[in-house]
Amino acid sequence: MSVDDRKLDVLRAIVEDYVATQEPVGSKALVDRHHLGVSPATIRNDMAALEDEGYIAQPHTSAGRVPTDKGYRLFVDRLSTVKPLSAPERRAIQTFLDGAVDLDDVVSRTVRLLAQLTRQAAVVQYPSLSRSTVRHVELVMLAPARVLVVLITDTGRVEQRVVDLPADADDALVGELRARINALAVGQDFASVEARVTELTERFGPEDRATVAAVTATLLSTLIERHEERVAVAGTGNLARYGQEFDHELEPLLSALEEQVVLLRLLGEATSPSPVRVRIGSENAQSGLLATSVVTSGYGPGELALASMGVVGPTRMDYPGTIAAVGAVARYVSKILKAH
Amino acid sequence: MSVDDRKLDVLRAIVEDYVATQEPVGSKALVDRHHLGVSPATIRNDMAALEDEGYIAQPHTSAGRVPTDKGYRLFVDRLSTVKPLSAPERRAIQTFLDGAVDLDDVVSRTVRLLAQLTRQAAVVQYPSLSRSTVRHVELVMLAPARVLVVLITDTGRVEQRVVDLPADADDALVGELRARINALAVGQDFASVEARVTELTERFGPEDRATVAAVTATLLSTLIERHEERVAVAGTGNLARYGQEFDHELEPLLSALEEQVVLLRLLGEATSPSPVRVRIGSENAQSGLLATSVVTSGYGPGELALASMGVVGPTRMDYPGTIAAVGAVARYVSKILKAH
DNA sequence: TCTGGCACTCGGCCCTTCCAAGTGCCAATT
DNA sequence: AATTGGCACTTGGAAGGGCCGAGTGCCAGA
Fold this sequence. Notes:
The structure is a homodimer.
Chain A: H1 3-21, H2 27-33, H3 40-52, E1 56-57, E2 66-67, H4 69-79, H5 87-98, H6 103-118, E3 121-125, E4 134-143, E5 146-153, E6 158-164, H7 171-185, H8 190-197, H9 206-224, E7 231-234, H10 236-241, H11 250-256, H12 260-267, E8 277-279, E9 292-299, E10 307-314, H13 319-339
Antiparallel strand pairs in A: 1-2, 3-7, 3-10, 4-5, 5-6, 8-9, 9-10
The structure holds a DNA duplex.
């Protein structure tokens, strides 16, 4: 075994021990707990080298070493082996998610499941509108000058918006409008609908145009408004349990977890479902999250990910376990969405 | 001024000082900060009496006094004067809530506003279905054997559910069903709809009854399922800020704030909008909430409250300010709902 | 009924001491 | 060249001790 190999082994051992014990780990403890076959002094040399390269650090002189963000990064990228979920965990995922009755239920069950599996805070984005297609648009008159616009997507999501019309409308007009909108929107993705629906106004008589414009404008804003994308959160209590280590930093973290904008940035752009992504500590570049890592995965019924889900926890988290959990849940949810 | 009056003054002073400083308050500090016109020794006697009666307690011998739950209760019931909101606060409420576009937006803005005003955790219940009336029921065919049921209430709330039919249906059947359901449900409160809709099946031919039954069953379950009542939460970070005083108790508290069931019980039965209710510490009889107080108010467009909103914080909270804030926000939201 | 005085209690702060864990370096060994 | 044992050094944290101040309860006097 070459020297570099052993150094990596040492780093791995440090990460594992530190994650397990939450305490800086010294050379002696390392050789005791892992059978490395060399003496503490040798380990010390390796550790000094690792420290020079920036993978570990010591909180104070005469203390053990702690992994740096860079160290965790190396660990995640090259040193950790996939830790398969236990059978009970697999069963838990299935039984928990199979009971879901609709999309909202899937999301809320997923987020609680993730929080429970990882004992950290979980975040799940509702499947994004912008990648869905329109299944149906419904217009309902609530009052002579007030219409409810309901948008139904192929993912089973329903968005509604109330429109105040510039003038009273009658059922005939609303009915015609409903028919026309559905004729050109159903089955289309949102971008296409945007393109087609704008010309719709011209097909109506001048006296109705203002009304039609009001309705289509609302429909478009529903389609476009990505910031409407919702996010479910659970397990924030787990972060508190993770100890007083966060100390004062707990409050900004909790605040961050309440802000949709922050959460969406956290989950990042959902690309393809497969790879689980890990952002470690300072890689987040988000004020309250410098001491936290984020493990995310896209999910969705097809090749493209509709949305993301993930877990937020301290940098000193069990990466293999968390990655496995997030990956497994994302895969299973994707399968459920496909079946629907 | 009789003796009992002064004792109550002393209690009030203790509560106010303790809330302000977070530290046990002694006789000397009391006479210094409040011009009570008597000597510390006199105050000591009063304090001893108050302690005998269970209104205050001392953490240790030779420490100042701290109000008990019973003391807070007396303070809230008889000693605190209403503290009107400041002009900026009033403005904040208006500008913040007037921008709301729909019911969901009202709720999410309200909960954030409450959290910000009181610097505590806020909880707002979505207007309850069970007290609403039906404005419209829409059936949308998603597939030959799959129908989306959309229920629209007079509060602007929309509930949807997907039904898998026992057999394929055609547009004609669904259209007829839609018309009939609306004919008997629109304008009715939920209890009436329950009563009327069950007989509906019999009006259809035998071959369609299974289909009709499936749809009506789903509609009924949507009407009845109160546990579907959702709750919005914000400001949990404020609880962390409230200091390490919660210590280990923070985690169960955060968990409790994530559980719909607990939150709904916390908000309690919404009765009439007007009075703000306060539950103090052990009055909650909820595991994680023994050190917290809950200030709630019903709200809704009419005389009856549709739902509740409230604030959760440490027992050592600023009751007059919190009560004023919750009351003002509840009144303002009620006004908005009435206007809609 | 109130007040001033007085003895007493006790938690928190500060200081010191001590210890264990851990390091870095170096000379010796393989 | 790599590894090892030995050793001096650093340092945070725990343990102990003394001090101080805030606060109390009680009592005798106004």
